[in-house]
Amino acid sequence: MGSSSDAMIDALRGKTKVWLLDNDPEYFKDPSLFDEGKSPIMCDFEDNLELPTFEAYESGNRSILFKHKGRWCKAKGIGIPTGISRPIYLDGKIFTHQLYDDPGMCHETILWGFMQGSEYECELYGSKKAEELGQNIEIIGFSKYENVFYLSLKDRIELFKKLKMTKKDDLIKRYEKEAVKTNAYSAYYYVPSDIRVGELLFTFMFPEVTQLIDPALIVDYVKWLGSHSGGLLKEFHDSGNLHGTWVGPKYTSLGVLDIHSNSYTGNYIVDDASLTMCDFDLSKPIKDASMMDIEKWALINIENPLHYAGSFNQRDALYQGIAKKNRFREELAGIFENSVKSGYDGESFEIERKTRKEMLQRVTKAKIMLWSHYGLPKSLTGQIDYVDYVISKKTPDADSLREISSKF
Fold this sequence. Notes:
This protein is of the alpha+beta class. About 40% of the residues lie in helices and about 25% in strands. Strands 1, 2, 3, 4, 5, 6, 7, 8, 9, 10, 11 and 12 form a twelve-stranded mixed β-sheet that branches. The protein has a two-stranded antiparallel ribbon with strand order 13-18. Strands 14-15 form a two-stranded antiparallel sheet. Helix 5 packs across helix 11 (about 355-375) and helix 7 packs antiparallel against helix 8 (about 290-300). It starts with a helix and ends with a helix.
């Protein structure tokens, strides 16, 4: 996508500091990705080591994005960029946590900041299948960290609660006495961009978006996004593989199945030419045909910003005014659903490449402006319920709308 992609990524993503650790990564392609024998990592160094560093864009909670030889590269599972939950490096050891029952995460267990061996094997498998299908993603290497130790905690709530209550010296003593040894992995890719379908759909949560972009163009763009997402998922299924989904043994508090899936709009990358699937850390061959329908359902429903968050039920939202009804957003939710189903059935909706490029730029710009106008931090990449809440508390007047439009 060239310079326009650079500008959009710069506006959407914050930057972070990354260290290069002696770790002997294995590169399938392009050994010049990092300095020879070095692997990128984000953690707290208690040894005060003088290591080479570089700046990169944050991509999710444990990954970075950077340019190499004019191409976008992603390093996935290299630690945590900021905050009290960063892994600790001391005496050649990496200390972190394993979460074993966090319902908001895809995996049954999570090695905080990194990938577990099973995740990496799935990631390698799924990304290679996507590349074989002609998708614009290419896994080019990985790192294995052998001196990794973890303490077990239930979920992110317990993790941050414990860390806030524990001095670092006491935490290190616990690590040295109680931690379990394991291996951790990171993976490296060439990707077309880092802009996700899901984050573009966040733009359409805001009622002011129709003041910035022609609603008819928005409808066509959502149709294109939906149908091509559905088409990619169908191709993946036809190759005999799942993007990655498992179903828990219990029903949720809403009375629906406990579904954990990589098949959602946040795992589809957009550029001006096409869409590409990403994040395959649950991917595997299809053994149960019913999982294909579940993945299609997940693509339409899981973490879809066009839907109101599950916490905004009718009683809270309509009677207490927590979330405002937005008829255009609701219309788009139905259009996206029907488009995913049509694309999955082989009927893709097309718009000109020039229009795709212009819409990607305009929707991205609108998201940045509305995000800023509502006081939402750049680091916030999800949390539909929180964005719904912020929108409900702000009623822009005509002057505010004119101010936004004048800058667009």
